[in-house]
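Q: For a teaching session next week I want to show students how multiple molecules come together into a single three-dimensional assembly. I've collected the sequence lines for a complex. Could you give me the predicted structure tokens for the whole thing so I can convert them for display?
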Amino acid sequence: MSREGAVGNKPKGPLSTTSTPSHFHNERQLLAPTETGMARLSLTDADAKVRKWFAEEVQKLGCALSIDQMGNMFARQSGSKKSSAPMIAMGSHLDTQPRGGRYDGILGVIAALEVLRTMKENNFKTNYDVGIVNWTNEEGARFPKSMCSSGVWAGAIPIQKAWDLRDIHDPNVTLRSELERHGYLGDIACSSDPATGFTLGAHFELHIEQGPILQETGRSIGIVQGAQGYRWLTVTVKGKDAHTGTTPLSARHDAMLAASKMIVASNAIAKRHDALASTGIIRVPSNASTNTLPSDVTFTLDIRHPEDRAVHAVQEEFLKAFATISSEDGRGVSFDWTLDTDSPAVKFDQGCVESIKAVADHIVGPGKSMYMTSGAGHDTVYTSKHCPSAMIFVPCRDGVSHHPTEYCTPEDCALGTQALLEAVVHYDQTRAKTANGI
Amino acid sequence: MSREGAVGNKPKGPLSTTSTPSHFHNERQLLAPTETGMARLSLTDADAKVRKWFAEEVQKLGCALSIDQMGNMFARQSGSKKSSAPMIAMGSHLDTQPRGGRYDGILGVIAALEVLRTMKENNFKTNYDVGIVNWTNEEGARFPKSMCSSGVWAGAIPIQKAWDLRDIHDPNVTLRSELERHGYLGDIACSSDPATGFTLGAHFELHIEQGPILQETGRSIGIVQGAQGYRWLTVTVKGKDAHTGTTPLSARHDAMLAASKMIVASNAIAKRHDALASTGIIRVPSNASTNTLPSDVTFTLDIRHPEDRAVHAVQEEFLKAFATISSEDGRGVSFDWTLDTDSPAVKFDQGCVESIKAVADHIVGPGKSMYMTSGAGHDTVYTSKHCPSAMIFVPCRDGVSHHPTEYCTPEDCALGTQALLEAVVHYDQTRAKTANGI
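A: Of course. Below is the structure for the complete assembly, covering every listed component.
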């Protein structure tokens, strides 16, 4: 990057206007201004403020700005070919969690802006149009649907359902009413359909990893090839409530013991498959007491793996193990399970991934980058259904995100931004060569 | 028993006056009137009604009735010696859980009444005075302190603390205000002190087992030698919240996995020691979600064994195992624990136990009775601190109690009542022989 340290070193206006509550500042000693978090829920006044700033910035650069019916903002910079082909987009989101950080999503949009600024300052023109997307309500923290507007754009979420989402604290406020209030109910369809919506030629997203792998392996750039498949199960173990003092172990239907064994077994099985298994929630009936065995125990299971067939194999092994566990102790228990979410694995576009790989090798060398699979959901997961897409990850300290202390060093922000710029240029040049039959 | 089937076959007036809500009746097909439960919370109008009935019944038998300052009712029948020695008591309680059965406590008082009736009808007189105690608020279901008034009597609970207990649903109502309202704030001290309170020469309690052991081993009478020691611990496992999709197993501080392993380990350790270990409650933070590892997990542990040293040894092994588990997976976790309750084991009086053993051999034969240790708390645990005490258990179907379907067959009720009668007579005769130097 020619503009040294422009990203990450000092926050620009909009990064500090919506400051987080002051108690966050006491959490760590000597926090840098970039480590004090952000509370910018989608379509709040704070979000409207940063959107206005973003619109002004892209217009200063000479971009055309389009807003669709979900408030997604598309900034388009003409390429030298003056082609009508859909633009190569760099996209992410400017909304945050209520107690979020200053990198998740924000880095991807600010870096994209920096890419366009750098191109302009250097009088550099891509062959095809390039641009930026600010996706609305990616976090789903205020209107509870994550990757909400890229989902509508991709046809995976009906727009009426998205519009009808209610503010989690104020049921009188809907996503649509907030779009209208701020003037972001745009006049083009939220769709990848070139006839009615804003179609994209490619989608690159720079994002913090939100996990510890890059930091732990000493890499600066993750070349993200896709997103893990995951399944969410709810398991209910049915035993029988009984007095803890008068019921011998041999006479128990001990749902708590069986559920604990199931959680332990799920971890061991996942480990063997190099998969992830996690229990986030466990519940006993509200009348539970220290001296009563609970009648039933319910827990969640989150299974993840980059390959769908591994997710399925792990689930199958879980259920077999659970059946065995159900009859192991005392009088046994029974169990039911439901599949609450099934999100198949996503493979990003090989061309986009190769562009990132090529530039990462150039920027940091092969030893400082690595192929990765995203563990979390991102707008790119949806864009990849309708245009070539891939992501660039940069390290975040200790894997922490969705927290005020979320942090990515200025150096890593800059390296990621450089990779984003070069990947877009690489992809644009490859596209031009292909079009020219080279 | 000369009065065949008088106990258990058909409910008498007070057993049916306080009927339970009608929806209980639909739980099982063809419920006998004795299987439809009871809701008679301590010192309610329903309790006042059965107390009035009890007072009338014992007065019909010629008993003197004393009420102490906790509303404990002492009915005293003179013996042939006209001795001033404290009476041999048969005691239990007439209050129930809000959704309780018709045997827990009630059987012990009704059987005692039946014993006095049978003696009277047969013109039989014991040497020393015998009588019945109806202990107030044994369940602690309305005023939250179980074995409340035997506890005050034994000096283990300060009377002011007991008086100040508030109705769990109406904080304006105290145990004392209800004693006053119903005229049960008696004029003698609630104490075993012969100078001020109502002292007892012995205390026998017939009670349903509240566990499945008698039923499973085909016995009719349990000769209860004491009560298990138990300790209640709360364990808090501290991990770190993290995204389930982006945090490798090796980088986790997985409190849920560690807590599950601890529960599994506690069961295995208890089994080796022939002890009981149970987890009734487990909690994750309220912001838990399927795709976030909870920052911490809290669970209860209930450890029981008839010997205190075994309870302590088991606890020590638990804590060692927990320390090992804390460092087993990923980045490890830490844990804290608190000792919430420490109730040492209780050994009942050898003389009382031998009286029960002798009569059980006579009534059902040695193959149909067995020595037992009570797993639950009873008023006799407190009386045993101040007078020779022991208990007789009879089977209850499937070990179920504190539930409308709690059930003891008429035959077993009768056998238990017969054992109560004969144990009191045996104890009285042994006492007379000892007094006479035989």
